[in-house]
Design brief:
Helix content: 10-25%
Largest sheet: 6 strands, mixed
CATH topology of the largest domain: Immunoglobulin-like
Radius of gyration: 60 Å
CATH class of the largest domain: Mainly Beta
CATH architecture of the largest domain: Sandwich
Number of strands: 32
Strand content: 35-45%
Bound molecules: 2-acetamido-2-deoxy-beta-D-glucopyranose
Number of helices: 3
Structural class: mainly beta
């Protein structure tokens, strides 16, 4: 136990002072009016800074040194000794002064924390004996935490797995410390922090652990450990990129181009290795399980998402013997089990070498054939109907005739009644002397009218003019302009036959 000094009674000090004033010649009498002042009771200093311990004495004390001790009783430590300069940690602030025994301790360390006493010794024939001392200054050294470190798992882990990360800092004092974790600025919950004694007895260490479930898009994410302590004006941060421990295996897809391939043509097998991280893989091609001698595959390229991909191609001659051969692409990523993709060589049969499209199979061919047949049948049907109509129309036209008849029902009765020229309609079917016809056909734009006039008199009565007209407008009057254009829906022809 420390033997604490008895605090001198203040009234006594006053008495001493008074007596000093009353008897100035009392100096020789072992410094009756001597006073030692150590004003600060407590001091707090941050490690690395300079500690200033103040102590002043009045003149006229007894012969004997002033010392600074750290601690009291057994285990005290001399910090400064007036007799032994520069061999201790304390340095005089005012060198050579007889009254100011303030000392400086530079680059304070956490272990400098303790209670410091300014002590005046009196020299006696047996040695220095304690004469006066200050009340002690309690020095606490606050220590900043060291820059935090974040450590992750020792091996890479795939998405879906959990991984633990530990943030550590140490050498801080006092022990109160706060730690926050963030994943891309979003706070995440951590396990309670653990505080242990630090490198010295006056400091502490801290470790804080979080467990996160890895995701595929964590490739660009980072964890941040943020440490707050009383000695810090701004928190200390340490980040950890999750790409350091993430391993995303590739997807492997093998395809044949073209598929199927014509006999003896060159076929390419492509191996698409996609979405892996980190970006190193080994790609091997195998033909029916036997390793092929292919060149080195291209370097992987990085995608905007931060993953890697590559395409390896191998060219093969599609000879008959290789039809049905299996080509596989074996990808080893990060020393893990290989991931393989495979495709079977399909050489097209000889009679369908032009069919490169994989859609041209039996069922679609059947559809094409069926559609063709239906179309042909429809076309034949249309032709047959047309032929029947034609045949019906040509009935009764075998001999020359000119039949006058009433207009068809469809043309309406009003047409006939309103006809100012009292016209009749006729089917004309003249077959002879076709070559003597001179037609004068006037066609108006809106209606389809025709005036047919045979200009020359036929040689005989037998030489009849031919007209192949269904609806004929016989006009007895001299030639007149085409009928009114309002009758747009009818098809009229005006035929003028010269009288003999
Ligand atoms: C300091 O320690 C020494 C022994 O190391 C002891 O003799 C001395 O009395 C101690 N001084 C005080 C003031 O406790
Ligand atoms: C405390 O942390 C320091 C580094 O800051 C380290 O060197 C030391 O080993 C740690 N001590 C303990 C007890 O963890
Ligand atoms: C394919 O090549 C083989 C020899 O390699 C030859 O015998 C065969 O006639 C070729 N077939 C065609 C369709 O070119
Ligand atoms: C290749 O094999 C497939 C099925 O095994 C067969 O249909 C095809 O006709 C073969 N090609 C040749 C060129 O023999």
């Amino acid at each position: 136990m420390e033997l604490l000094p008895r605090r001198p009674a203040w009234p006594l000090t006053c008495l001493v002072l008074l007596s000093l004033r009353a008897w100035p010649g009392a100096d020789a009498q072992a410094g009756q009016g001597f006073e030692l002042r150590q004003p600060e009771k407590e001091m707090s200093v941050i490690a690395g800074e300079t500690l200033t311990l103040t102590c002043t004495v009045t003149e006229g004390g007894p012969i004997g040194p002033v010392r600074w001790l750290k601690g009291w009783g057994s285990g005290n430590e001399t910090i400064y000794d007036q007799k032994e300069h520069s061999s201790h940690r304390g340095m005089r602030a005012v060198n050579g002064s007889n009254t100011d025994f303030t000392i400086l301790i530079r680059d304070v360390r956490p272990e400098d924390a303790g209670t410091y006493y300014c002590v005046k010794f009196r020299k006696t024939h047996t040695g220095d004996e304690l004469y006066r001392h200050g009340e002690g200054t309690v020095v606490s050294v606050r220590a900043r935490p060291s820059n935090p470190t974040v450590s992750g798992p020792s091996h890479r882990a795939e998405p879906g797995k959990t991984a633990s990360f530990t943030c550590k800092t140490g050498g801080f004092f006092p022990s109160d410390i706060r730690v926050k974790w963030f994943k891309d600025r979003a706070p995440i919950q951590a396990q309670p922090i653990r505080i242990t004694p630090g490198p010295s007895n006056f400091t502490y260490n801290m470790s804080s652990t979080v467990t996160v479930t890895l995701q595929k898009d964590d490739i660009r994410s980072e964890l941040t450990c943020e440490v707050q302590h009383a000695t810090l004006t701004a928190p200390l941060n340490r980040s950890y990129h999750l790409s350091q421990i993430l391993r995303v295996p590739p997807s492997v897809l093998v395809a044949q181009f073209p598929d199927p391939v014509g006999l003896n043509k060159t076929v390419n097998f492509t191996c698409d290795v996609q979405g892996f991280y980190p970006g190193s893989v080994t790609v091997t091609w195998l033909e029916n399980g036997t390793e092929m001698n292919t060149g080195s595959p291209p370097r992987p390229t990085e995608t905007p998402e931060g993953f890697f991909e590559l395409r390896s191609t191998v060219a093969v001659q599609a000879v008959q013997e290789k039809n049905g051969s299996v080509f596989s692409c074996r990808v080893v990523h990060e020393g893990r089990d290989p991931i393989s993709g495979r495709a079977t060589l399909r050489v097209a049969a000889l009679d369908q070498k032009e069919s490169n499209s994989p859609n041209t199979n039996g069922s679609s061919l059947f559809i094409y054939v069926a559609v063709g047949v239906v179309c042909t049948v429809l076309a034949l049907l249309v032709v047959a109907i047309l032929f029947l109509i034609r045949a019906k129309q040509s009935k009764g036209k075998s001999s020359p005739s000119a039949r006058l008849h009433e207009p068809e029902k469809s043309s309406g009765t009003t047409t006939q009644e309103s006809d100012p020229n009292n016209l009749t309609y006729a089917d004309l079917n003249f077959t002879k002397e076709k070559k003597n016809i001179q037609r004068i056909i006037e066609v108006s734009q809106q209606s389809e009218y025709a005036c047919i006039q045979s200009s020359q008199a036929p040689a005989s009565n037998d030489n009849l003019t031919y007209a192949d007209l269904d609806m004929v407008h016989l006009s007895k009057a001299p030639r007149r302009p085409a009928p009114c254009p309002e009758e747009t829906t009818s098809e009229y022809a005006s035929v003028q036959i010269q009288q003999q």
